[in-house]
Specification:
454 residues, disordered N terminus, 5-stranded antiparallel β-sheet, 18 helices, alpha+beta, KA1 domain-containing protein, KA1_dom
Length: 454
């Protein structure tokens, strides 16, 4: 118990007293929003999120008399531990697993959402004396899945229960091949890069052809009018851009094709779509070749964008989140290439005059996603099209990789509104989301590199 209490105190002290920015940063003429803390800044900034789950030791309620039976696989009894310590252990586990969470200190609940949109709720109860066993000396932790993937739920549920009992620190120690491709990848700054299935320096011709044929089949699935087909197609793209699933060479070739072509980007760009249906062969006025199939799939002209049902709108939001994950995977694969020629692929692509990655609409959409860093999951679930903290983390990662290979994108990061959003995202990442913290720290390190070298 003292272990978690000491960590809690040290974390709160380190976050409350941040070290002052070096004077060399001012010489580099960076905006002041990056150099000063929220307390001394005159710019209106959102409140800093709290890391621990603020639960008082004597605020827990007993389990109601006619409460439904609890699932033993999703419930744990923590004896001899106070409620505040259990809550802090759970909050730290959710942070290290990069789970979006919203705490309710009145009802002692936590509403959480994983990166693959699995929603679940955590409830803390006070133990009581029963005719057979005395549970009054501990805390009961109950986790209930509301919607989403059951495999993702049970994986994070097991980690939460182990952390609540004090059996682990909450960190994810699984090997890459033991994780699901829909989960976050291990960051290079946190762990060493794991060996992948194949380390060929150059892909063979058969691999290139195979990747092209596979992507053509996926595009056919995305053009279908069934929502489950479109979701399966986007999940296949995530699998194909994950080296630990399909192999390094195949993931690299798939990523290069996806970045070179332009049919993936309309799924990411947030814009108002036309209400009139368009034919599949009709050309668009923009530089992108494909419309979002879910918004042009209407069989009747009566079905406009205003009368889509709730499930269709949520599906559109989920599809965009998956497409953003595909873009991040593709960018990560090409910059981590072992071959020198493959490593220069992204730099050469960004230098081309008609590069779709440098479209202003795409950059502005990724910039808007950063505002989801401090957006509660309940707000996202009740609304349509809003970015979550997961999309904010992926957007930061995409812009970070592009900024490392294109001076124009790095200049885009240096704008005042982008640095303000970066500051908020860093605060939220340190508090609740380890993956967002790693991405924002890398961006901050890159932006202040010249100032530190002075």
């Amino acid at each position: 118990m003292s272990f978690f209490s000491s960590n809690n105190n040290s974390r709160s002290e380190s976050e409350s007293s941040l070290p002052p920015a070096p004077e060399s940063l001012s010489a580099n003429q960076l905006p002041q929003s990056l150099l000063i803390s929220n307390s001394s800044s005159s710019i209106a900034m959102p409140p800093r999120p709290r890391t621990p789950w603020a639960v008082k030791d004597h605020s827990l309620k007993h389990i109601p008399k006619y409460y439904p039976p609890m699932d033993p696989n999703c419930t744990a009894f923590v004896p001899g531990t106070t409620a505040s310590v259990v809550a802090f252990r759970i909050a730290e586990c959710l942070r290290q697993h990069s789970v979006a969470v919203e705490y309710d200190n009145e009802s002692i609940t936590a509403n959480a959402m994983t990166v693959d949109r699995c929603h679940f709720e955590i409830q803390l109860w006070k133990g009581k004396i029963t005719p057979t066993v005395d549970y009054s000396h501990g805390v009961v932790v109950e986790i209930q899945r509301r919607s989403g993937n059951t495999i993702s739920f049970h994986q994070v549920c097991t980690a939460i229960l182990q952390a609540a009992r004090g059996e682990s620190s909450g960190a994810d120690h699984r090997k890459p091949h033991q994780t699901n491709a829909m989960e976050y990848t291990h960051m290079p700054s946190l762990t060493a890069r794991p060996p992948t299935l194949s380390r060929k320096p150059a892909a063979s011709t058969s691999d290139v052809v195979s990747a092209k044929v596979t992507l053509e089949k996926i595009q056919e699935q995305l053009r279908k009018d069934r929502l489950e087909c479109q979701q399966l197609a986007m999940e296949r793209l995530i699998q194909l851009t994950t080296p630990t699933v399909c192999g390094y060479s195949h993931a690299l070739e798939t990523s290069k094709i996806l970045l070179s072509e332009s049919w993936l980007y309309p799924y990411i760009i947030a814009e108002q779509d036309e209400t009139e249906p368009m034919e599949a062969d009709e050309p668009k006025s923009t530089s992108f070749a494909l419309l979002k199939p879910t918004l042009k799939r209407s069989l009747s002209p009566r079905l406009t964008n205003d009368n889509f049902c709730q499930n269709e709108k949520q599906h559109e939001t989920h599809l965009r989140a998956f497409a953003l994950r595909v873009l991040f995977n593709a960018l990560s694969n090409v910059v981590d290439a072992q071959n020198k020629e493959d490593a220069q692929f992204l730099s050469n692509l960004l230098q081309s005059p008609d590069c779709p990655l440098l479209e202003s609409k795409l950059l502005e959409t990724l910039a808007e996603d950063l505002q989801g860093a401090n957006r509660p999951p309940s707000v996202v679930e009740a609304s349509i099209g809003l970015a979550t903290i997961h999309e904010a983390a992926l957007a930061v990662g995409c812009l970070r990789i592009m900024a490392e290979n294109a001076p124009a994108v790095k200049q885009f990061w240096n704008s005042e509104h982008m640095l303000e959003r970066l500051q908020v995202a860093r605060s939220c990442g340190r508090s609740t989301h380890a993956f967002l913290q790693a991405q924002t720290d890398l961006v901050h390190y890159s932006l202040t590199e010249d100032a530190r070298s002075c």
